[in-house]
Amino acid sequence: MGTGYVGLTTGACLASLGHHVVCADADPHKVDRLRRGEVDILEPRLPELVRDGQASGHLEFTQDTKASVAGAEVVFFCLPTPMGVGGAADLAAVEAVSDEIRTALPHGCVVVNKSTVPVGTAERVAALLGRPDITVVSNPEFLREGHAVHDFLHPDRIVIGAAEQEAARRVAGLYAPLDAPVVLTDTASAEIAKYAANFFLAMKLSFVNNLATLCEHFTADVDDVVAALGHDPRIGPAFLKPGPGWGGSCLPKDTHALLTVCEESGVEFPLLRATIDTNVEHQSRLVERVVAECSPGAGAPHDARPGTLPGAQPGARPGALSDGSGGPAHGSLHGVTLALLGLTFKAGTSDLRDSPALAIARRLRERGAELRAYDPALSKTRPDLSDLLTIVDTPEKAVEGARACVVLTEWPQFRDLDWEAVAGLLTAPVVYDFRNLLDPDRLARAGLSWQGIGRSLAMVS
């Protein structure tokens, strides 16, 4: 049920393992395109798996939801569960499909929640189905966008939560060719495990971004600090790279959903709230740096050490600005054009959902900046963001006449740009590298001032 990122990847990969899979989706245009082998999701190997699955007869697509479950032994719910009012997960799609197919489900089949859902959803779906002969199992996905096919076919673990051992065994059997560790548990534990994983990853990202601020204050190098941390096997290097904040289709909605669950159940979890708040504050801080250095009349930022911004008061929090009254400054970017490189929430995907790049862009726009953006995944599709910025089809068009360039997504091709040409197109030779992606020495040779996160020019020159 559903042919979004999770549904299409799950269906295509299960078909590649030799299972017969029918993917149902309510969007007739999407179904028609998929039948023609046209995959809109930017994901390595996925288009090939879709075409191969259809050619072998193992993979079908249909808009007829009820007909799709005829003869099914296992039915996967791969449905959207976006952030709803107050941060809770919106289960409208799960509830609607449960109601639609409950009488059409074959006797004794297993329904699997693959979507990320709040604790208790398996029991809720079972109640909605009202079929004692059907078991509802929780089998959360742990797929990374840009690596989804690889992650499905080479999982580090498979989590299956079920009240009945036979149902758990049947679902585990689908993954048998992958020879991966299987965690068998109850449905509530499986549901919590998914939220816990995403919360922990978000926490590591908030931690490293806060750590970068500390490094800026003391002229330390966050890359060296992280290298020291990453060699500790209890910590590891993954998700310890500073950036413009975390976002995407999972972390924001899942952390807010977990926070809502905690609040509704009366469980105090201050670390979760702090993780979310730290991310918001970090993005505000990055924007304030750009505002302080690029607002009309501001001095050149060439000698400004990150964390010591123009207008900062003695004893102020690193990266904070003051208007003299102890509160934050409210500079303006009216009349200032900025070039943004990267809009997707990470490289290797065309996904804009809760992108931190867009969050930064909105804050810059609110301060009056005119924004031109280039993203290699969007230069042809051109999503409608006209109320926020102008998307152009080359990096050069983005930077021409701009006051500064801001790197927001870690596309590797940005490293290989003709930075001498970029320097000649900008009205001021400044690049804010909010991914620490670029080579500062390379930019210096091009005559550009490089501004990273948690690293000063003195450390990298």
Describe the protein in words:
By secondary structure, this protein is an alpha/beta fold. The protein is built from 17 helices and 13 strands. The strands form four sheets. It has a six-stranded parallel β-sheet. The protein has a three-stranded parallel β-sheet with strand order 3-4-5, sandwiched between helices. It has a two-stranded parallel ribbon with strand order 1-2. α9 packs across α11, α9 runs parallel beside α12 and α12 crosses α13.
Topology, element by element:
Elements: H1 5-16, E1 21-24, H2 28-35, H3 46-56, E2 59-62, H4 65-68, E3 74-77, H5 92-101, E4 110-113, H6 121-129, E5 135-138, H7 148-153, E6 158-161, H8 165-174, E7 182-185, H9 187-217, H10 222-230, H11 251-265, H12 270-294, E8 337-341, H13 356-366, E9 370-374, E10 390-391, H14 395-399, E11 404-407, H15 419-425, E12 430-433, H16 440-445, E13 449-451, H17 457-460
Parallel strand pairs: 1-2, 3-4, 4-5, 6-7, 8-9, 8-11, 9-10, 11-12, 12-13
Helix pairs in contact: 1-3, 9-11, 9-12, 12-13
Compact summary:
The protein has 461 residues and is α/β, with parallel strands linked by helices.
